[in-house]
# Entry
Amino acid sequence: MEKESIDIKTAIQIAKIVVTVPEERMPIIWDIFKQAGLDIGGIDEMAEWKSLTKQAFLIDTGKFLEGITAGKEPVSGEYRIAVSDFNEYCTRQKLSPRCTRKHLAGLEAIRTIKSNGKIDYTCTVYEAEKNASSSRYVCIFSDWKERIKRGGAD
# Structure
């Protein structure tokens, strides 16, 4: 499908829709735009940052990190939380796992890797004790308290 140019009036109307539509209805709006052949660059990132900004105010970072690392022992300076366990914990806290990981990465409380130019908030960890398998983890630095203080959180 070939991209079409839109005029400034249409662009302004789209901007008004994006700004005024309740966040929970945005997926419907994006789908309509896509079906109409409008590829609005950056709209997904904008929604993610909007959600992250809202959630950053909802999360008590210290309490969250204390809760998710409770009873766990650090390995090589980090707590390794299986992605499924992290996602489940976030869901119980009524938080988006991806936005929470992004928030924690912004505070440098978790280890990130760069893959194909994108930041990945989970890491593959080789596990010799599990017959040389590897698993995906959210790797929370064991010195997260100092890190979030430097990041200006809580």
In short: Residues 33 and 125 are 39 Å apart (CA to CA). The mean pLDDT is 80.
